[in-house]
Design goal:
This protein has helices at residues 15-25, 40-52, 67-74, 88-97, 112-125, 139-149, 169-172, 181-184, 187-190, 192-203, 221-226, 255-260, 265-268, 370-383, 397-416; strands at residues 4-9, 30-37, 61-63, 78-81, 101-104, 129-131, 156-166, 207-215, 286-293, 298-307, 310-318, 321-329, 345-354, 360-361, 395-396, 420-421. By secondary structure, the chain is α/β, with parallel strands linked by helices. Residues 145-422 form the Gfo/Idh/MocA-like oxidoreductase C-terminal domain.
């Protein structure tokens, strides 16, 4: 079988998940042909990792203004997009117009206008666009889909979904570019797209109407001042106050973060270690949402980014009983060096409560690798030989749009105080 070729744009924290997989596990089916980024130092470091960590060849590098040139020079089969969220649509659309299929990191994009541009581009170019929802592939999440599909609790009428980010991982969104909602759509888009996609995947439906509330209630300078804090700093590097701050990220103490970010600052000025209690944070850290689905099910959802533990609780109430799920994830910092820790599990349980029977625990397959064992399965699905999948976990651009529309509608609702109809946002 002829190898598929891949070019990648955006060599930051998420990129190694993809290029590392090709270099390590999929050399027989995939080939890397180019990197593109705003920052040459970061691309050079990615090439260094290809050689030193994976014993793979260096690939040609192109600066952001040479993106089109990369695609014309290398003619890849696929373009992998792992840039800042607000730029996803630019690279996705241009790649499809130049004849590439696209694999993009979530979220697909950050607002309804960009989503419509992507939908129109897929229609216009007839290219394939895939969103990498690794949580679908985690064995416990697939098991939930199986139980619901098999009618174990009958028709699902209501879902209560609580997601917790702790003070290590949750705080990390407020140290970096995600703190500015203009870059990411806020956590209701950037992070919750995973969760809304899971509910869509589990119920095989998506929301009709969304009402949301949210605010910045813990992070940010104003909140810290209210709690009596008086010692502030702009970034951790070089700050005496940061030395005693639990929330500080010390780039110089982590070789991977130092090479990828601290040493690359000279080119673009991006600081990866900003204070989570600084000014200029517009992303909410406390969010609540209610949605009515097309199939009439009701979702209540909450996200907190400063919890004592990491993971989620989700409960399904159906016509034949109740399904309760608890998952505790190990904490991590993005690009902290150990990719296997991202979303790895400390514990998990699924309990079925039949309406007229005794409750029982459901056995869950043990998954190895990041995100509860979902990462290796997703990567095999992307770069390896396709296998038949009863649950159709590979997410299309339509799945990607539907998942972000819940968060986009939530952002509109937070601004207006009014419920939002999802069908008013885009034309599929």
């Amino acid at each position: 079988m002829k190898k598929k070729t891949y070019a990648l744009v955006g060599t930051g924290g998420r990129a190694e998940f993809f290029y590392g997989a090709v270099a390590r596990d999929f050399r027989d089916t995939a080939d890397l042909v180019g990197f593109c980024d705003l920052n040459q130092t970061r691309m050079d470091y990615a090439n260094h990792l290809l050689e030193s960590k994976y014993s793979y060849k260096k690939v040609p590098t192109y600066t952001a203004d040479q993106f089109e040139q990369m695609l014309k020079d290398q003619t890849p089969d696929y373009c992998i997009v792992t840039t800042m969220d607000r730029t996803h649509h630019t690279y996705i659309i241009k790649a499809m117009e130049l004849g590439c299929d696209v694999i993009t990191e979530k979220p697909l994009t950050i607002d309804e206008e960009k989503a419509q541009c992507i939908l129109d581009a897929v229609e216009r170019t007839n290219r394939k666009l895939r969103v990498t929802f690794n949580y679908r592939y985690a064995p416990h999440n697939t098991k939930i889909r199986e139980l619901i599909e098999d009618g174990v609790i009958g028709d699902v009428h209501a879902v209560h979904f609580e997601w917790l980010l702790n003070t290590e991982h949750g705080a990390d969104y407020f140290r970096r570019w995600h703190r500015d909602k203009r870059n990411s759509g806020g956590l209701l888009v950037h992070k919750s797209t995973h969760h809304f996609d899971l509910v869509n995947f589990w119920l095989q439906s998506y929301p009709d109407t969304v009402l949301a509330m949210g605010d910045l209630m813990f992070y940010g300078r104003e909140n810290a001042e209210k709690r009596g804090e008086t010692k502030f700093y702009q970034r951790a590097y070089g700050s005496k106050y940061a030395k005693s701050d639990h929330f500080a990220l010390h780039l110089e103490k982590n070789e991977h973060l130092k090479e990828m970010y601290l040493n690359a600052e000279k080119e673009d000025g991006y600081q990866r270690d900003q204070s989570v209690f600084g000014d200029g944070i517009s992303t909410e850290d406390t969010l609540g949402l209610i949605a009515k689905f097309k199939n009439k099910a009701i979702l209540t959802y909450s996200l907190h980014a400063y919890a004592p533990w990491e993971g989620f609780n989700v409960v399904f109430n159906g016509s034949k009983g109740r399904l309760e799920v608890n998952v505790v994830e190990k904490s991590y910092v993005n690009s902290g060096g150990n990719k296997e820790e991202e979303g790895a599990l400390s514990s998990k349980s699924i309990t079925v409560h039949p309406m007229l029977g005794k409750p029982y625990e459901v056995e869950i397959e043990e998954g190895e690798g990041g995100h509860g064992g979902g990462d290796p399965i997703l990567l095999r699905d992307i770069f390896g030989e396709p296998v038949e999948d009863r649950f159709h976990r590979a997410a299309t651009h339509i799945d990607g749009v539907k998942s972000i529309l819940t968060g986009i509608a939530g952002n509109i609702s937070i601004k207006t105080g009014m419920p939002v109809k999802l069908d008013s946002l885009v034309n599929f």
